[in-house]
């Protein structure tokens, strides 16, 4: 019995340790620091980032140091002003494009408020506030020493109007920016679609000069690393990710971008900067090779890619395109966009369990329309799947409880003689056909499922600000009144009462303290996860009571 208790306690503590370690290693920034929460009416002067464009010809992924010619102009030199911002509004975006560079400098996600209490204030995913920079950039580079005119993300573009809006009845909105030099006309086009967070970004190069045009298109994300700190247990990984056919999903943190710059060439793939619930990703055509790179320029970090060389003959034109996803981590949509992009919903090593759990959870939600109800039904389903294992565990515990008086008598008889005590206990177990490990092994089998469900609930953007009932209006944050954690502690205490009392007094005190410890610990967990635990404990109590009352006595 002592061994069984030790294994059970160890299993629970091991689960907590796994969760804690994963949080500490992968999740380094609080949710409230991941997104700008400033109102749209702020008047902070936008910063002009340090140059992130790779200089010169980069066909093999080598990214030379920025040359003097690539040094960005100051705001005064470029004449950057509010009038050079192009505003784009769709049903899901409110975005700003800078005429200098044609960069996407600000994106608000209209369907995702900052908090339940601020429904009119959307999250700002891309932003160019000083100290909080996160922008998406593209540009063209001349190939080698050819010297073909090519607009980088510092070139000045012209636009026909300063405001674009997706009208009712329209499915897409096109924004054209133009640049011209020495007979080369470049049109940079953004294409926004209704209900979609994927934006097409392209360059059409028209060569009216007498010489061939040779160049590359580059795409990059530039961001100021966030500062650590914030609320306890509201941490999330914020950093870079690339996907390649060989290495597949690979995280690149901000320090690594500067200290060990990436220079790698492979076909297809994508590059992203991710955070809790949201991401921005460049997804190029998958049938060409790209040189992926990272840089540290001052306090800013850059992750990007350079495309293959393109030649445009005199009198001809060519179009280069890429996809830019700026939005929530909706798994089904990410799977449609690019191979492996859904892995940004990071379930860890138990992805093969978490993904089916998320699918079932989504199925229940599609039927009942409430994520809290979906969690309860998923808990019931998991309990049914593991019913037989749980039955063996509770039956073993019930038999242990029946022989508890005889075990206490054996302990009193042999006292501190551990060898004879253990021999007598094993003899009793054999006579009564009791497996001392029978109560804990079935429970240990279920621990990976709990961990997988934990990540499924934590990583699902669908649960963000999802209401349940009464006081629980956001299942992704802690219960504001700690009702669920207290209920969870109460159910753990009831379970403790239903189990046989440990013979070791120290062990008995530890088991009494566990409900209190877990109540405090889970007070900081998302309400959706605690709801699962409360329902699971409640079902376990009913099952254990039924088995003890009817099955064992029969």
From TrEMBL:
Main subcellular localisation: membrane
Keywords: Cell membrane, Chaperone, Membrane, Protein transport, Transmembrane, Transmembrane helix, Transport
NCBIfam families: PRK01318.1-3, PRK01318.1-4, yidC_nterm, yidC_oxa1_cterm
Name recorded for this polypeptide: Membrane protein insertase YidC
Transmembrane segments: 359-386, 434-457, 477-498, 510-535
Localization: Cell inner membrane; Cell membrane
Sequence ranges assigned to domain Membrane insertase YidC N-terminal in this UniProt record: 85-360
One GO biological process term: protein transport
Biased composition (Polar residues): 68-79
Keyword Transmembrane helix: yes
Region described as Disordered: spans on this chain: 33-82
GO molecular function, one term: membrane insertase activity
Topology in membrane: Multi-pass membrane protein
Protein family per UniProt: Belongs to the OXA1/ALB3/YidC family. Type 1 subfamily.
CDD domains named among the record's database cross-references: 5TM_YidC_Alb3, EcYidC-like_peri
Gene Ontology CC annotations of this record: plasma membrane
InterPro entries the record matches: Membr_insert_YidC, Membr_insert_YidC_N, YidC/ALB3/OXA1/COX18, YidC/Oxa/ALB_C, YidC_ALB_C, YidC_periplasmic_sf
Pfam families per record: 60KD_IMP, YidC_periplas
Self-association state and partner proteins as the record states: Interacts with the Sec translocase complex via SecD. Specifically interacts with transmembrane segments of nascent integral membrane proteins during membrane integration.
Positions of the Membrane insertase YidC/Oxa/ALB C-terminal domain: 371-549
Protein task: Required for the insertion and/or proper folding and/or complex formation of integral membrane proteins into the membrane. Involved in integration of membrane proteins that insert both dependently and independently of the Sec translocase complex, as well as at least some lipoproteins. Aids folding of multispanning membrane proteins.
């Amino acid at each position: 019995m002592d061994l069984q208790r030790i294994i059970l306690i160890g299993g629970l503590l091991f689960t907590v340790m796994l969760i804690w370690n994963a949080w500490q290693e992968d999740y380094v920034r609080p949710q409230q620091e991941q997104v700008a929460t400033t109102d749209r009416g702020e008047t902070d002067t936008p910063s002009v980032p340090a140059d992130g464009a790779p200089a010169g010809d980069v066909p093999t992924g080598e990214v030379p140091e920025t040359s003097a010619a690539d040094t960005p102009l100051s705001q005064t030199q470029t004449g950057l002003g509010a009038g050079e911002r192009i505003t784009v509004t769709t049903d899901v975006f409110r975005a700003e494009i800078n005429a200098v560079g044609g960069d996407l400098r600000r994106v608000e996600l209209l369907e995702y408020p900052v908090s339940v209490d601020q429904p009119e204030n959307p999250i700002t995913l891309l932003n160019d506030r000083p100290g909080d920079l996160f922008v998406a950039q593209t540009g063209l580079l001349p190939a080698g020493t050819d010297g073909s005119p090519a607009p980088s993300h510092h070139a000045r573009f012209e636009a026909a109007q300063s405001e674009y809006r997706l009208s009712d009845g329209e499915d897409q909105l096109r924004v054209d920016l133009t640049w011209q030099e020495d007979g080369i006309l470049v049109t940079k086009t953004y294409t926004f679609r209704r209900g979609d967070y994927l934006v097409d970004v392209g360059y059409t190069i028209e060569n009216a000069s007498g010489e061939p045009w040779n160049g590359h298109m580059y795409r990059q994300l530039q961001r100021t690393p966030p500062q650590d700190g914030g609320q306890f247990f509201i941490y999330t990984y914020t950093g870079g990710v690339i996907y390649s056919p060989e290495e597949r999903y690979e995280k690149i943190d901000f320090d690594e971008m500067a200290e060990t710059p990436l220079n790698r060439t492979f076909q297809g793939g994508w590059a992203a900067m991710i955070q809790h619930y949201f991401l921005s990703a460049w997804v190029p055509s998958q049938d060409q090779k790209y040189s992926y790179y990272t840089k540290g320029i001052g306090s800013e970090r850059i992750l990007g890619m350079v495309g293959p060389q393109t030649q445009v003959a005199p009198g001809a034109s060519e179009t280069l395109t890429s996809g830019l996803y700026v939005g929530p981590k909706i798994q089904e949509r990410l799977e449609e966009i690019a191979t492996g992009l859904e892995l940004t919903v990071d379930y860890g090593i138990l992805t093969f369990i978490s993904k089916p759990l998320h699918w079932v959870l989504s199925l229940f939600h599609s039927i009942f329309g409430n994520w809290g109800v979906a969690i309860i039904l998923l808990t019931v389903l998991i309990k049914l799947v593991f019913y037989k294992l749980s039955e063996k565990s509770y039956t073993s515990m019930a038999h242990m409880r029946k022989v508890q008086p005889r075990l206490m008598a054996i302990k009193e008889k042999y006292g501190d003689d551990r060898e004879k005590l253990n021999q007598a206990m094993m003899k009793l177990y054999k006579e009564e056909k009791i497996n001392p490990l029978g109560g804990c092994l079935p429970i240990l089998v279920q621990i990976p499922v709990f961990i997988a469900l934990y990540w499924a609930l934590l990583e699902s953007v669908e649960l963000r600000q999802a209401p349940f009932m009464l006081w629980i209006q956001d299942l992704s944050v802690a219960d504001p009144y700690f009702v669920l954690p207290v209920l969870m502690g109460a159910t753990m205490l009831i379970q403790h009462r239903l189990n046989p009392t440990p013979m070791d007094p120290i062990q008995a005190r530890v088991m009494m303290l566990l409900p209190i410890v877990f109540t405090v610990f889970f007070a900081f967990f998302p309400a959706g996860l605690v709801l699962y635990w409360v329902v699971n404990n409640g079902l376990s109590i009913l099952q254990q009571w039924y088995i003890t009352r009817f099955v064992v006595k029969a």
